[in-house]
Every structure is written in C-alpha cells, then in structure tokens.
Amino acid sequence: MQEKLLQNWEKKSGERVKEYKKYLNRANKNTVLKQLPDLNEQAFSKIDCLQCANCCKNYSPRFTPPDIKRISKYLGMKEGDFKDKYLRVDEEGDNVLRQMPCSFLGADNYCSIYEVRPTDCARFPYMDDEFMLRRQPMALKNSSFCPITYYILEKLIEAEKSR
Hints:
mainly alpha
C-alpha cells in the first residue's frame, strides 16, 4: 500500500509550489541539512525510481567533459562521435541530450550506462545537500516531476510545523 502522502503527488505538488517556495526562502539551512540524510533514506525506501523514471523521460542532465570522456570510452566511441550522435549544446552552453526520453533509458526504465552515467544523473534529485536551498528554482521544478523531491519537501514542511 502506497503511503498517503504519495497518493496523487503530481497534483498535490503543483498545488503547493508557492508553499514550497516560501518554505525554501525562510528555511534554516542548518536545520534542513540535519534532516536531509534521514529524509533521503526514507524517500528512497518508499519510492522506486524504476517505477517512475520521469527524470530520464522528460529532462536531460548536463554532460560535463569528464562525463563525455567516461561514457564515450565505455561505449567504445570517440568523444566527438558521441557528442555528434547524442548531444547538443543548450541555451546555457551545456551539453545536453539531443532527444528525450534519454537514449540510454530502456523500456524497463533501466539505464544502459548506469555504471558510468553523468554526474547529474548520479546526484539527482540533489536532495541530500544544500542544493535545494542554493538553487531553489531547480528544486521547485524537480518537485513537479520527481516524487522524491516532493516527499522530502513535504516532510521538511511537516517537521517545521511540528516544532
């Protein structure tokens, strides 16, 4: 049985964006950072990313030069060929995927390059450090498609109210 908090999370997250924004603007950094390890563990124990894969289906990570080098080598490709086949430069100057969903995402939501995936993928959804406080627009965007981000924001707000 799914936890009540996670039922209809997509709809609820859309309705609560303003509250998340207010919370992130006033949140005490140290209080939040103390809670994140446990909340991350809770969230990942309740939510199976392989059932979702919204991040891989709808958004591209940044591919840094070390990512490109590592993945190209893994695939047995020249870096230039890898970039030509899979990547484009976005409006911010970052290397991102040419198309969505991710070319490396299988029908079973498994990643074919998981062992060497981009650093952005390995760190996503960035809820284990102060990222969400430093890059609030990104955290708010992530809450709209990532149930883990939604769950952690909800639990942080809940904890604040109970203090």
